[in-house]
Specification:
The chain contains 4 helices and 4 strands; from the N terminus they run ββαβααβα. By secondary structure, it is of the alpha+beta class. β1 and β2 form a beta hairpin. The radius of gyration is 18 Å and the shape is globular.
Length: 171
């Protein structure tokens, strides 16, 4: 649809090659702003099944977002907890979040000073710091980083081949 300011907004599109269709399952969703898919580990030669979520989180100040009864990131986190117990999780999409250069991992994480068994706490990966030309941090960006920290999910923007400089993702 077209918004009040004349811009198109929202929506997800998924294209799957016919030959891959038997090995990719579209999963039942709790929300229309994201879609979970399962990639079969045996066909794709993965160690675990891959649960991919394609998401669109509308801008925080949009009327659509203000009329939602539950925050999309909260719904996503609930699903992440469910699917990461079954396999690996990958989130893709547009989160309308500005994370600047906030860390998406716990730096120098260890179990050295925990009063519990070290087996119960998964130590976070000490990754290379992301690069980002966008130094602005907004509320949604902080929330996305909290989701990453709480679930050991890491942003690829600014740290992978093809985007090692952290280019802007929206103009």
């Amino acid at each position: 649809p077209i918004s009040g300011n004349g811009r198109y907004f929202g929506g997800l599109a998924i294209f799957i090659k016919q030959a891959l269709k038997p090995h990719i399952s579209l999963l039942v969703n709790s929300q229309k702003d994201f879609q979970w898919m399962k990639f079969d580990k045996s066909y794709f030669n993965f160690n675990h099944d891959l649960y991919l979520c394609l998401a669109y989180d509308p801008p925080a100040q949009s009327i659509y977002t203000k009329n939602l009864s539950t925050d999309i990131l909260q719904l996503l986190e609930k699903d992440i907890l469910h699917y990461k117990s079954k396999g690996d999780v990958l989130l893709c999409g547009d989160f309308n979040a500005r994370c600047g250069n906030l860390l998406d991992f716990v730096s120098s994480d260890s179990t050295d000073h925990l009063p519990i068994s070290n087996d119960n706490y998964p130590v976070d990966f000490n990754l290379n710091v992301r690069n980002s030309r966008d130094t602005t941090v907004d509320t949604r960006g902080k929330e996305l980083i909290e989701l990453c920290l709480g679930n050991q999910i890491h942003l690829l923007n600014g740290r992978t081949l093809g985007d090692s400089l952290g280019k802007y993702t929206c103009y």
